[in-house]
């Protein structure tokens, strides 16, 4: 199946066109973020204007936005840790043990990914309103933990399922207990998978919007909601808003570069190895 | 742990074979083994099960209860059993049918376009090519990198008054439509943003599928004179049928739940032009504070999504695994 020179040039051109389309909003974000207010007219930047860094300088001095970043990190780290602690044993059990109702259990986990956050958040809004959880970091952390469970479970299950059967047979011959097989045999072999799950959970929590908007949009607001704060002043705050967007995207973009395969595996419930 | 080990050792000494994993080799597990295995299993599944019960059963029950009660946070004095009033109120409103049709229409167009574009892009990357690794790395950005920031960027670009898109159109003398201010165009704009965001996901999934197919089949087809498009549509896609069914189902279910992009780019407007079901539920609950009616509508949506998931997503996932 030899590709002609012309075919290869066309294919390359088509791929580059797609690349431009995919990164367009990010390129726009960077350009506006680095543009002086006088170089932005009606929301469109002068693409040839010199770079202007003071949107970022101002942002680093903006305690409200920096506080939101700090809370985002806190919520993401804690919710990720709890989700992994809860999902890892279940993922192992479903990947390496036979039991009745396993596929029903897995579908149940999968179905939690299908619930619209907009519907799930209603009862939690009512509940947290009664027990004083509205606009607190802990309420959001709890919600992000459960939101992350399904992806963590399916990602780790695929890692556990990929382990060679021979290792477990050898462990059985050595008389290892179930607990020991999990703790001393399987667990050390999936550490990379757990790291990948931690990274993905961090990203999902960092990106999450519906629960953050509904349950924590005041004092406890996180990055995604804090970005909306720049909208009130319309064109005046366009530069700062896109600078904030850049700061919100940057850590995720860097990490995604390393964890793109795991992201696809997790989001396809382990069906695709990426 | 050491007790387990001694038990096994003494059994070995007594001449019985070592413990085999249940279901693998011939030996029937002793009742003792079975009980400790069951305890182990319960211990492994319990933490996640408890958390997920809190996430699924509690909201479900609570939405059910709320949907049957008068619960309007602006009128706290009116409480109590409401029967099916909430359902009657939501279903009776003309806006609901609109929202339903809009949701179905947007999901259909978006998912079909995403599948077509995503698969075409995957086929471009199927054979090795310089630059494709860079593209693969960039592909995850639209659906992975802080969507709220990307939506804000789109919102600015789509702004009818001097946004980037209209500024570019004006520069070459083309008309500058009201992307977010005209009802029809606002819907189109949101579908385009959804395609921008999710076609890359389809590309990555389909590319993984295409790469798993044996090269020889396609070399033979090429020798027989099958064009690249024929090889993709006639040979590769039928071979990947379970994957196609799976990815289309989960994408469709996800598309029904789309909220962030609509809320940030148009807020459901102009008027109610882009008010899909989830946006309507959100507005009913958190703008009007009609928790009862929002719960009634939410419950209906939950049931529909659950049935669709059980009917299509679960079998597709199972077929994929075997």
UniProtKB/TrEMBL annotation, chain A:
UniProt KW Transmembrane helix keyword: yes
One Pfam match: BPD_transp_1
Keyword flag Transport: yes
PROSITE patterns recorded: ABC_TM1
Signal peptide: none
Chief location bin: membrane
Subcellular location: Cell membrane
Cited InterPro entries: BP-dep_ABC_trans_perm, MetI-like, MetI-like_sf
Protein name: Sugar ABC transporter permease
Organism: Micromonospora gifhornensis
């Amino acid at each position: 199946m030899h590709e002609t020179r012309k075919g290869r040039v066309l294919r390359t051109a088509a791929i580059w066109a797609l690349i431009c389309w995919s990164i367009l909003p990010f390129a726009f974000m960077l350009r506006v973020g680095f543009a002086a207010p006088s170089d932005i007219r009606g929301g469109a930047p002068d693409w040839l204007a010199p770079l202007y860094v003071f949107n970022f300088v101002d942002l680093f001095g903006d305690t409200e936005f920096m506080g939101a970043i700090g809370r985002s990190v806190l919520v993401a780290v804690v919710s990720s840790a709890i989700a992994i602690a809860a999902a890892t044993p279940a993922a192992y059990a479903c990947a390496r043990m036979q039991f009745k109702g396993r596929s029903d259990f897995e579908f149940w986990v999968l179905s939690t990914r299908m619930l619209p956050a907009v519907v799930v958040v209603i009862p939690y809004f009512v509940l947290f309103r009664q027990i004083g959880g509205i606009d607190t970091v802990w309420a959001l952390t709890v919600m992000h933990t459960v939101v992350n469970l399904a992806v963590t479970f399916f990602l780790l299950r695929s890692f556990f399922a990929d382990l060679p059967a021979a290792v477990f047979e050898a462990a059985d011959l050595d008389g290892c207990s179930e607990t020991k097989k999990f703790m001393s045999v399987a667990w050390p072999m999936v550490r990379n998978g757990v790291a990948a799950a931690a990274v993905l959970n961090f990203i999902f929590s960092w990106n999450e919007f519906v629960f953050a908007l509904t349950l924590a949009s005041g004092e406890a607001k996180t990055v995604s909601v804090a970005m909306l704060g720049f909208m009130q002043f319309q064109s005046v705050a366009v530069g700062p808003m896109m600078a904030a967007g850049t700061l919100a995207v940057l850590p995720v973009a860097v990490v995604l570069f390393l964890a793109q395969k795991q992201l696809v595996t997790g989001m396809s419930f382990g069906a695709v190895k990426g | 742990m050491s007790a387990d080990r001694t038990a096994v050792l003494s059994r070995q000494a007594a001449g019985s074979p070592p413990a085999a994993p249940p279901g693998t080799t011939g030996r029937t597990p002793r009742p003792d083994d079975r009980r400790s295995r069951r305890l182990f299993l319960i211990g492994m599944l319990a933490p996640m099960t408890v958390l997920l019960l809190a996430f699924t059963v509690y909201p479900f029950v609570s939405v059910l209860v709320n949907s049957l009660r008068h619960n309007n946070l602006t009128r706290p004095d009116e409480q109590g059993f409401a029967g099916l009033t909430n359902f009657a109120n939501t279903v009776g409103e003309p806006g609901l049918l609109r929202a339903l049709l809009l949701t179905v229409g947007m999901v259909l167009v978006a998912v079909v376009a995403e599948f077509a574009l995503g698969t075409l892009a995957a086929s471009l990357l199927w054979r090795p090519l310089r630059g494709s690794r860079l593209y693969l790395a960039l592909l995850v950005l639209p659906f992975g990198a802080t969507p709220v920031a990307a939506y804000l960027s789109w919102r600015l670009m789509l702004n009818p008054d001097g946004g980037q898109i209209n500024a570019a159109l004006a520069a070459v003398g083309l008309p500058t439509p009201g992307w977010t201010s005209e009802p029809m165009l606002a819907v189109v704009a949101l579908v385009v943003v959804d395609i921008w965001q999710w076609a890359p996901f389809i590309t990555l999934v389909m590319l993984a599928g295409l790469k798993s197919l044996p090269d020889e089949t396609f070399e033979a087809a090429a020798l027989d004179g099958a064009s690249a498009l024929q090889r993709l549509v006639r040979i590769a896609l039928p071979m990947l049928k379970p994957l196609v069914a799976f990815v289309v189902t989960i994408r469709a279910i996800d598309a029904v739940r789309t909220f962030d992009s609509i809320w940030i780019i148009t807020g459901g407007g102009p008027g109610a032009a882009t008010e899909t079901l989830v946006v309507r539920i959100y507005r009913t609950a958190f703008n009007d504070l009609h928790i009862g009616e929002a719960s009634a509508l939410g419950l209906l949506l939950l049931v529909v999504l659950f049935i669709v998931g059980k009917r299509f997503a679960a079998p597709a996932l199972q077929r994929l695994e075997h």
